[in-house]
Design goal:
The protein is of the alpha+beta class. It is 46% helix and 12% strand. The protein has a single domain (14-106), classed as Arc Repressor Mutant, subunit A (Orthogonal Bundle). It has 5 helices and 3 strands; from the N terminus they run ααβαββαα. A hairpin with a 2-residue loop joins strand 2 and strand 3.
């Protein structure tokens, strides 16, 4: 949950995207499942990711994706909204995101926890 006292969100510029940082961020199955969801939903609040990890681990996964340039985050009131930086990734690394999404969907990412 975002707050007025949370630290500022730092996002790398498109020209600073590093292929190896992006690929490293995408190798984790939980992070890949986040990216797969963001590819179909343009703006997802942090609290709605229903993954088999603790909140602190989810926050870390989102930070890794943001710092690599894969996602952007913005605060709206008390919610933190996540979006895939698809256009920027496609400009910097043409075809990479399409391949990752295709292979990730075929491989299967962790499914949401159902109660």
């Amino acid at each position: 949950m975002a707050s007025r006292t949370s630290s500022p969100l730092l996002h790398p510029d498109e020209r600073d995207f590093d292929l190896f940082a992006v690929m490293s961020a995408l190798t984790d199955p939980v992070r890949l499942s986040i990216v797969l969801r963001l590819a179909t939903e343009p703006a997802v609040p942090c609290g709605t990711f229903d993954l088999p990890v603790a909140k602190s681990a989810l926050s870390r996964h989102l930070r890794v994706l943001r710092e690599a340039g894969v996602i952007s985050q913005r605060d709206e009131g008390t919610r933190r909204i996540n979006s895939l930086r698809a256009r920027e990734l496609d400009r910097r690394f043409p075809g990479l995101l399409t391949l990752v999404l295709k292979e990730g969907a075929e491989r299967g990412a962790p499914q949401p926890v159902t109660g």
